[in-house]
Amino acid sequence: MVPFFSARDVAAAVPPKAAYAAVREAFVAHARGEWTMQPKLYVTNYPAGDFRAMPALGGGHALLKWVTSFPGNPLLGLPTVTGLVVLSDAGTGVVEAILDAATVTALRTGAAAVIAADALGRRDSETAAVIGAGVNGTAAARTFVALGRSVSIWDVERARAEAAAAELGAEVATSQVEALAADLLVTVTPGREILLDEGALRPGQHVSLMGADGPGKAEIAIAEIARARVFCDEWEQASHGGELTAAVEAGAIERGDVTELGAVLVGSATGRTTGEEITVFDSTGLAIQDLAIAIVAYERADELDLVRIDL
User: Torsion-angle region of residue 209: left (phi > 0), alpha (psi -120 to 50) or beta?
Assistant: First the structure.
């Protein structure tokens, strides 16, 4: 019988601190070549949305994530992100667990945003803000709070920001301008509009760009990318389907200008070098991050009252 982790079950099995630790180790394992994956495959049905297939192998397990992004769904009363994660034994191929993909995605997105902020932000950073109070933005704010950092939240729908802040014990930013000025900034928007034009980021700031995870999306201007120290989760994926895509196509940056976060975490590449540097992290979402969350959940399967499926 295969355990099924609903959204509630995934959240119960993997609290934010556990997600942070697991995703950080996944970055390290991937940088060392111990965990492997292929770039995500997009099956597009634009303008409605797209489907994504994401495989990974590591830690004695294999994973396939089938997940969607349909930005117009909330107007229909439906979630933007839906799908399933299938976890298998890497030695036998036997299915071990099936998990709700949206919650796995939120946990690893929130974790990755804060891992990058911790690794690349100034050591004396005082303020943190999240722009976008949807599922993934709230997950990023929740991770900041779980690690003991105060955070403010801003959203175009103030009621949504207020609800998220009340749930987490966070603050509501008085304006987008205030949020954008935070020492540690996380943006989790649909990526349809530029938030950060040229010159928007001040010296010493860090921004984790989490929203532009597909072709045609952007939260930051190409010129602003060009004036910053640039980091990403994985070059092959980010340069073809993330925030960096337009900058690469325009010739504003190339492979040598971008450092992968995993390399910084293992010490094989340099992160921030000065307090005045502007650091930018482009996240496209990696299957190894999903694998890390799925493994933590699976290891706690016996502690939870889960539905079990006879395949």
Answer: beta
* Superfamily of domain 2-104+288-309, CATH level 4: ornithine cyclodeaminase, domain 1 (3.30.1780.10)
Q: How far apart are CA 180 and CA 196, in angstroms?
A: 8
CATH value of 111-285 in 1.10.1240.10, 3.40.50.720, 3.10.20.30, 3.30.310.170: 3.40.50.720
Torsion, Cα 272 273 275 279, to 10 degrees, reads -30
> What are the pLDDT digits (tens) for 102-113?
999 999 999 999
Q: Which residues of the chain form CATH 3.30.1780.10?
A: 2-104+288-309
Looking only at the bridges linking them, the beta strands covering 258-260 and 229-232 are parallel
Active site residues: 65
pLDDT digits (tens, 9 = 90+) for 130-152: 999 999 999 999 999 999 999 99
Q: Is 81 helix (H, G, I), strand (E, B) or coil?
A: coil
Q: Which residues contact 158 (CB under 8 A, 6 or more apart)?
A: 172
End-to-end, the C-alpha distance of the chain in Å comes to 7
Q: Which residue has the higher pLDDT, 55 or 243?
A: 55
**DSSP-based three-state secondary structure for 299:** helix
